[in-house]
């Protein structure tokens, strides 16, 4: 909470993995236009209400996690009274996810890993990557398939592997996990 990664407790809207590098989420929100913020929410979290949430977050400066949570929750509820509470809660979670990804440039780090990964594997070596949301999973899937077509990988997962009901019951966080794998070609 003290770095803004949770909205369950009050905290500054920072979200930086390394607090001495980069721009806090509050500054990012202040700097981005409404249109760019909506694009960020769509790109980083597949948020279906990105335009409305962007408009809500640009109404006034926000500097705390509670302020963002409250603006999104109350704004969506007022604008879309028929929206289920669970859908509102998911939009809040996706908003925080999108901001965290942007602040820490997480997709660039993943793309760098995916480009370097084949050179880190011996012929016949295997790589497995667990993702936790669709933006990450799309990147892994596309990179593995592209390298498979080019002969870099001899085999890749055609289907994502998900946790079983028993695993999910034992660890609720496993419900979002998706595993993909690839095997380095023998050349």
Brief digest:
The chain has 187 residues and is an alpha+beta fold.
Question: Quaternary state, please?
Answer: single chain
Identify the overall geometry: elongated
Task: Report the mean per-residue pLDDT as an integer.
Answer: 95
Secondary structure: helix percent: 40-55%
Low-confidence stretches: none
Q: What's the total helix number?
A: 8
Q: From N to C, what is the helix and strand string?
A: HHHHHHEHEEHE
Distance between the termini: 48 Å
- Beta content comes to 5-15%
Q: Report the count of strand segments.
A: 4
Q: How would you characterize this protein structure?
A:
- The structure is a single chain.
- The longest helix is centred in the middle third of the chain and has 20 residues, at 85-104.
- 53% of the residues lie in helices and 10% in strands.
- Helix 2 crosses helix 3 (50-57) and helix 3 (50-57) crosses helix 4.
- It has eight helices and four strands, in the order H-H-H-H-H-H-E-H-E-E-H-E.
- The N and C termini lie far apart (48 Å).
- Strands 1, 2, 3 and 4 form a four-stranded antiparallel beta sheet that branches.
- The model has no long low-confidence stretch (mean pLDDT 95).
- It is α+β, with helices and mostly antiparallel strands and 187 residues long.
- The chain has helices spanning 25-31, 34-45, 50-57, 65-79, 85-104, 106-120, 134-149, 165-170, and strands spanning 126-131, 153-156, 161-162, 178-184.
- It is elongated and about 55 Å long.
């Amino acid at each position: 909470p003290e770095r803004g990664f949770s909205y369950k407790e009050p905290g500054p809207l920072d979200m930086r993995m390394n607090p001495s590098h980069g721009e806090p989420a509050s500054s990012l929100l202040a700097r981005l236009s409404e249109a760019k913020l909506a694009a960020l929410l769509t790109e980083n979290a597949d948020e279906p209400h990105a335009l409305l949430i962007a408009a809500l977050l640009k109404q006034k400066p926000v500097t705390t996690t509670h302020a963002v949570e409250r603006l999104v929750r109350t704004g969506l509820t007022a604008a879309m009274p028929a929206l289920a509470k669970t859908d509102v809660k998911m939009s809040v979670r996706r908003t925080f996810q999108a901001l965290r990804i942007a602040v820490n440039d997480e997709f660039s780090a993943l793309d760098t890993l995916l480009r370097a990964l084949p050179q880190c594997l011996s012929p016949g070596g295997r790589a497995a990557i667990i993702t936790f949301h669709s933006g990450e999973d799309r990147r892994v899937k596309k990179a593995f398939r592209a390298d498979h077509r080019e002969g870099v990988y001899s085999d890749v997962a055609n289907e994502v592997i998900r946790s079983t009901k028993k695993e999910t019951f034992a660890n609720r966080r496993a419900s979002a996990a998706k595993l993909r794998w690839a095997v380095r070609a023998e050349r």
